[in-house]
Amino acid sequence: YPRRHAPETKLSEFNLTEIETMLGSYTKVLFVRDPFQRLISAFMQGMGSSPSFSSFVQDVLDSRQHYASEAWKPLVSLCRPCLVQYDYVVAFGYLRQELGHLLRRAGLPAGSLLPEFSDTQARWTYSWLSEQMFSELSLQQKQQLSHFYRWDLSAFPFSSSLLTD
Known about the structure:
5% strand; Sulfotransferase; membrane; Carbohydrate sulfotransferase; signal-anchor
């Protein structure tokens, strides 16, 4: 579909037959990250005008899913895992292990193509940061966030997410 295929072309711009043909011919990889960690990252990158994490979370909750930024919108609404059968789902924090496996499956030399990842350090840092920022939230905000991300928490293996409690 070179006539319409460009990096910025959205899948929804194709008809159903074209979509099915394309998705059947590609290896589909989905990169996922704990929704609470995505919120922290968006806050740290200054993606809101809120002075505190708690007020940022409240802004996110007030925006509702329909108006949410892609930086914190639930993954299920962005990636449609119930409609698209992904070949691989790669979780943040396990990139080195997962990408190495993916490259080997594609017949590529995994070691030479991967940058250095410090997955263990990243997981520990985000665990500590998540606990600190989670403690700033009210019980109501925690419950609302769990509800906001309920489909992500059901669809992906975020067993250590603070939002699953």
